[in-house]
Amino acid sequence: MIWIFLILAIIVGWLKGGKLRRLGNLNFKYLGIFILALILQYVIIFFGNSDIKLISDYMDEIYIASYILLFIGILINIRNIPLIIVLIGSALNFFVFIMNSGNMPVSIKALELAGMSETVQLLQSGELRLFTSLTENIHFPVLAQTIAISEYFPFPAVFSIGDFLIALGLFVFIETSMTDKGLDRKMSFGFGR
């Protein structure tokens, strides 16, 4: 779902006369922290159910480390106001994850509405690590992945309020950066200070 918001942000920014190259002129500190957090998230997504012992044995720790890196990166760059929205969304997701013993609750009904029957089977069989079915025993169910985009739309998905806030924050960040004429001058955008 997040990538849809990113594409929409670029389209809206462009329609408002924005320039994609302005993103390269952002004064963004320690970009490497965000890249490492994303790499850790993708390691979990792509290799979480594999037989790679290092990943399967430390999946919870990898997931938590990715959030810690994300929080650090956002706090270092907190002057970029839309990142506050991303921080709130990330904090909500992390909170519900921690409060439910290291699992993100997911609504079976929402998955079915999105046409994700294979995911339903994986979730119910316990093969989908870091996720659990939304039941009456779940803490803070309002923060679970309960929002569905129907399978009848081009990009069906199931997401949480936190996911939505992350996507919204990234949308606002990209769109406002693309339309910020103050970014026409060269600034630093790098891996260090």
Account of the 3D structure:
The chain is mainly α and about 190 residues long. Helix content is about 55%, strand content about 5%. The chain has helices at about 1-15, 30-45, 55, 60-75, 80-100, 110-115, 115-125, 160-180; strands at about 105, 130-135, 145-150, 155-160. The strands form 2 sheets. It has a two-stranded parallel ribbon with strand order 1-2. The chain has a two-stranded antiparallel sheet with strand order 3-4. A hairpin with a 7-residue loop joins β3 (about 145-150) and β4 (about 155-160). It is globular and about 55 Å long. The two termini are about 30 Å apart. The mean pLDDT is about 90.
Largest sheet: 2 strands, parallel
Count the DSSP helices: 8
Oligomer: single chain
Radius of gyration: 18 Å
End-to-end gap:
31 Å
Helix content: 40-55%
What topology, given as strand order, has the largest sheet? Answer: 1-2
Query: How many β-strands, per DSSP?
Result: 4
